[in-house]
């Protein structure tokens, strides 16, 4: 068994290039660090450093040990954090829009479940407005959804473009009504698209409705209509249309996190975990 304190001293000497700086980093005396390295070399039965009056360098055996030592220390730190984390229990009811559920959400939920195995997650996928209504009615604890246009409620997680998407082979018919595929229910993207079209000189017709993102993309891929999608939801087989094709510009979408008024510890911990999905200008992969 390798002592983690000895491995920590070994990595510090390797990173700092000497015993004096390593001792300062570890808040130990130089003689203590030197003794720790000697103990580690005794345990491994290998010389780990080549020492001269001016420098300290890793031996070949030291180079081999360094990568393993880093990984072991990372695992040890992760284990300590997990053990130090408060033990949570209960259940959390999460509502999430499909655009997020098909992206980086599963990995975030997996990490949360591993850190808090005593918490049961109930996940409901839907459209933003009904999910937020269920939260307000007390039927959900946390909601990850598109923020309604013109509002500032919820905690912003990321912002991205809303675009017109159509099949790569789709052609607009000059003078004809614009065929649309929209969410069946009231939604942020539906309202944004209709508002933009009402302010334009275009004629349009809703040809297809669906309760899901999958259904809207299927209609667009089949060439039945164009549909407003988050830029990250445009998949192979679809292309983005814009002002060059005479279509009005759409507003950006804001994905936000909503919590009930007095969240319990489990719900607050899940919300904090989901906030880590914010990556500046990056977008979740759909």
From TrEMBL:
<dbReference type="InterPro" id="IPR050176">
    <property type="entry name" value="LTTR"/>
</dbReference>
<dbReference type="InterPro" id="IPR036388">
    <property type="entry name" value="WH-like_DNA-bd_sf"/>
</dbReference>
<dbReference type="Pfam" id="PF03466">
    <property type="entry name" value="LysR_substrate"/>
</dbReference>
<dbReference type="GO" id="GO:0003677">
    <property type="term" value="F:DNA binding"/>
</dbReference>
<comment type="function">
    <text>NodD regulates the expression of the nodABCFE genes which encode other nodulation proteins. NodD is also a negative regulator of its own expression. Binds flavonoids as inducers.</text>
</comment>
<keyword id="KW-0805">Transcription regulation</keyword>
<protein>
    <submittedName>
        <fullName>Transcriptional regulator</fullName>
    </submittedName>
</protein>
<dbReference type="InterPro" id="IPR005119">
    <property type="entry name" value="LysR_subst-bd"/>
</dbReference>
<dbReference type="InterPro" id="IPR000847">
    <property type="entry name" value="LysR_HTH_N"/>
</dbReference>
<feature type="domain" description="HTH lysR-type">
    <location>
        <begin position="2"/>
        <end position="59"/>
    </location>
</feature>
<dbReference type="InterPro" id="IPR036390">
    <property type="entry name" value="WH_DNA-bd_sf"/>
</dbReference>
<dbReference type="GO" id="GO:0003700">
    <property type="term" value="F:DNA-binding transcription factor activity"/>
</dbReference>
<comment type="similarity">
    <text>Belongs to the LysR transcriptional regulatory family.</text>
</comment>
<keyword id="KW-0238">DNA-binding</keyword>
<keyword id="KW-0804">Transcription</keyword>
<dbReference type="Pfam" id="PF00126">
    <property type="entry name" value="HTH_1"/>
</dbReference>
